[in-house]
Design brief:
By secondary structure, this protein is mainly α. It has 18 helices and no strands. It is globular.
Length: 395
Amino acid sequence: MASRPERRPTVEAEPSLVAILTAWGRIGCLGFGGPPTHIALLRQLCVTRHGWLTDDQFEDAVAACNLLPGPASTQLAIYCAWRLRGRRGALVGGLAFVVPGLVVILALAAVFLANSPPSWVRGAGAGAGAAVAAVAVHAGVGLVPASWRRAHGTGRWVAYLAAGAVAAATIGPWLVVVIAGCGVVELASRGVGRRRQAAGLSAVGPLPLLAAGAAGTGGLLSLAWVALKVGALSYGGGFVIIPLMQADAVDRYGWMSDGQFLNAVALGQVTPGPVTQTVAVVGYSAAGLGGGLLAAAMAFSPSFALVLLGGSRFDQLRADRRARAFLSGAGPAAIGAIFGSALPLARALTEPWQHATLAGAAVLLLALRRSVIVTLAAAAATGLTVAATGGPLPH
């Protein structure tokens, strides 16, 4: 098949808004498996099947979205729709991509976060939640090879990875400051001019306040602030936001227990759409259905804003040496944070059989290379068996 010219598709080739709603909604319903699956489905739709974008255009879009904070596959879905039908297309496509998984995860949250769920629900949740730490390690392992190939200094790469891991395991809400700091260090190490270094540092300056969040009473304003941080400060994948959410949802505001938080993370893995939708479960636990919708709206608003306001500059971002240098520092730190998030997730387990389930999940994912959904289903089945036999379940 002859390659298409490097230009925006003609008006005749553009899909209607209804076609975008249908196509992006289909991906939103079938997008199990996280960003790799979402990217593959979007490529098949936009490049292979319809030729709306060329291979080079799609690869540049993927690269640009990976340079931005927030859920990259969500931003890619919004951006591809923006390329075809402008801002209206971005809104329609983005919502079609996000809403199906949001509906599913809120429905499951109503079951798993009920005041007195039946024992089989508690067992399934405790089993699936026990495997979450292994899923985090698996996610980090999958990101290492590409990041290592991009490294300009192996010693610095290891240092950034270690910094992210330690931060995720120990300082929770301040994690993003460490990640951004690693990016600034890499900028400096590559000889960026003093003025540009100062600009980078001044841009990162407000991050400590944003990362920690304003103190509050745990009401809707606090929930909105937590969700906004999740959407605006997550570099490198969905699991980077886990320590940030756990510190706020469990430790600071007490919206949910450790066990319920594990359930929330597991639900984010087994439902279609971006892992960021985990924040909707946190919102549901904090303030019911309205809280879940508020949290989702705040978490995804930065992704929509980045594309709607800056989509025309994505090509420049892809070629920007400073942006790529920043990502070379922040990227490995984010991967380290994914590894580090496994520690607080594992510490949340309370029953011996959950620790055994975690070990089994690690074998399934890392040694036998089974999928995340299969692994979580097996872990949930273990919890169901424990519940059915009258075994101990976490409270």
